[in-house]
Inverse folding.
């Protein structure tokens, strides 16, 4: 029993040595490009209520009403997001709005006062910048409120939307296009936002979208411009719903048909990697419908999310397994009753990604894919990683060849601290428990497990130090006892 405890302690020390300050980005926001980011996607009203002064009758028990979340809440909970390793937060549309989700825009010229003041917005953005994190916001190009100031003031600009409750803009009208571009540029300049997600643009002309992207980039070349729908426009990120479906199918249950993983790879622009978004059924719901245990499912899924090629995007509340089939049920007020084990796992894997340029930008090769047993490599001139995902109902072994990894290597696991050396027959045999995942760094096999040795020394040194302190205190107590008797 003591040996088992010792081994677990050594493993913990080894993981700490390998991961270190994993939650911190290794390059500053000014030096990062979009592939270096990992995005936490939320809505201002549904995150955290930092001050009641702007609540205006908000009701946190009513999914259809404003719940009270604000910029002050996002600022107060900055560390919560950062601790999970995210480098950017997306906060949805923040213009004056008739609905909690910000979509029913009333004007592009003012910020929703339920979310806070202009100063509170800038203070929040500054706080994230000080933490080396970025802030993105949405700019809806349609589906705005029927009471939008342009709807009645500018004839012919508005057309009824399909939902019958909002209006779209005539995006073929050049005056409308110019006005939208001017509004988006002004918004980016005045807020100092780091990224703009263009939403609800329907079948807008690609040339118009490219013109808007170019105008936004003129405000700041580093501004990230992306979308929530597929487009041929020159966005910095590719939104592909097929990728979401591939990931959901591969990780929603044990022993899945994971053949879709064969279609994943490096793309230009990078693909957004996500299991759900603010417009879809929550991934957790799919798990529950199949009678799966969400924290276990999410552990394997999160490992994939932060190690596959692309930019990971996680919808808020995934770390507490939020479920729901459609809005507003999919947009609950965050209760922060966190599954610490899942949150820590997200932090560890996302943090490792932050530390490794290879995991962010390196080459990708799928080495094995068979009904949930998935193995792939991320590599560069500096390092090679092997990620093993056993999304099956049984313990599995996978044999990787010397052709795949090279001769004389060893694989060091970062989660379970296992070592895999080349067998006499030439293979590298990796064994992983059911519903488990691990990351292996590929090294030259020197025959020595340096991190393990260092960890063992630290454990023994700590133990000896503890024994010494107990002995010293005991000796002091005995000495004090004798002195007391002498005085008596």
């Amino acid at each position: 029993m003591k040996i088992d405890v010792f081994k677990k302690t050594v493993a913990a020390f080894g993981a700490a040595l390998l991961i270190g300050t994993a939650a911190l980005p290794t390059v500053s926001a000014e030096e990062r490009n979009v592939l270096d980011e990992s995005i936490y996607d939320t809505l201002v009203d549904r995150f955290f209520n930092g001050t009641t002064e702007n609540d205006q009758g908000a009701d946190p028990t009513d999914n259809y009403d404003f719940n009270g979340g604000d910029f002050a809440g996002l600022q107060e909970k900055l560390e919560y997001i950062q601790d999970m390793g995210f480098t950017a937060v997306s906060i949805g549309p923040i213009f004056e709005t008739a609905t909690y989700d910000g979509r029913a825009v009333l004007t592009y010229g003012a910020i929703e006062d339920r979310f806070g003041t202009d100063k509170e917005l800038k203070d929040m953005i500054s706080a994230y910048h000080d933490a080396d994190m970025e802030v993105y916001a949405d700019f809806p190009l349609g589906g705005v409120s029927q009471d939008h100031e342009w709807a009645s003031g500018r004839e012919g600009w508005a057309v009824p939307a399909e939902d019958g409750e909002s209006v779209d803009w005539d995006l073929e009208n050049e005056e409308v296009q110019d006005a939208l571009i001017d509004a988006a540029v002004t918004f980016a300049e005045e807020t100092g936002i780091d990224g703009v997600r263009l939403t609800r643009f329907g079948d807008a002309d690609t040339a118009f979208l490219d013109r808007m992207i170019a105008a936004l980039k003129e405000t700041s070349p580093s501004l990230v411009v992306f979308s929530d729908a597929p487009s041929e426009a020159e966005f910095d990120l590719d939104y592909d719903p097929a990728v979401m479906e591939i990931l959901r199918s591969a990780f929603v249950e044990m022993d899945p048909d994971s053949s879709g993983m064969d279609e994943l790879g490096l793309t230009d622009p990078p693909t957004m990697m996500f299991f759900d978004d603010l417009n879809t059924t929550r991934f957790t719901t799919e798990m529950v419908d199949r009678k799966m245990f969400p924290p276990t499912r999410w552990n394997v899924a999160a490992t994939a999310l932060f190690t596959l090629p692309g930019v990971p995007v996680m919808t808020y509340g995934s770390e507490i397994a939020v479920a729901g089939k459609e809005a507003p049920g999919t947009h609950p007020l965050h209760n922060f009753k966190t599954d610490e084990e899942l949150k820590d796992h997200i932090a560890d894997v996302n943090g490792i990604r932050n530390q490794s340029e290879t995991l962010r930008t390196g080459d990708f090769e799928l080495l094995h894919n068979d009904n949930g047993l998935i193995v792939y490599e991320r590599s560069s001139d500096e390092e090679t990683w092997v990620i093993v995902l056993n999304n099956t109902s049984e313990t599995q072994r996978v044999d990787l060849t010397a052709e795949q990894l090279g001769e004389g290597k060893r694989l060091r696991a970062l989660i379970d601290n296992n070592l895999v050396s080349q067998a006499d027959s030439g293979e590298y045999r990796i064994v992983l428990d059911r519903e488990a995942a691990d990351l292996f760094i590929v090294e030259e096999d020197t025959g020595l497990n340096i991190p393990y040795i260092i960890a063992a020394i630290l454990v023994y040194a700590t133990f000896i130090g503890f024994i010494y302190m107990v002995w010293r205190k005991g000796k002091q107590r005995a000495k004090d006892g004798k002195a007391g008797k002498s005085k008596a």
Summary: The longest strand covers residues 436-444.
